[in-house]
Design goal:
Elements (H helix, E strand, L loop, with lengths): L17 H29 L11 H5 L2 H6 L1
């Protein structure tokens, strides 16, 4: 069959080599990291001002917006 050309013998479903386990753990960590990034991006999109320090945008509210555009 096509699988006879592979260098390793056909592994059973319950047995994984050390390289296969390491690759599986690495891919699992990458998926967890990707999931955390997706959640973080959606939280920023839903409430962008929560992640920003309040000193950067509350100062604008104290001044007139027209005066702020001139300077």
């Amino acid at each position: 069959s096509d699988f006879s050309s592979s260098s390793s013998s056909s592994p059973s479903a319950s047995f994984l080599t050390l390289e296969q386990r390491a690759a599986f753990v690495f891919v699992l960590i990458l998926f967890i990291f990707l999931g955390l990034l997706i959640v973080r991006c959606f939280r920023i999109l839903l409430d962008p001002y929560r992640s920003m320090p309040s000193s950067t945008w509350t100062d604008y509210m104290e001044k007139d917006t027209f005066d702020y555009r001139i300077s």
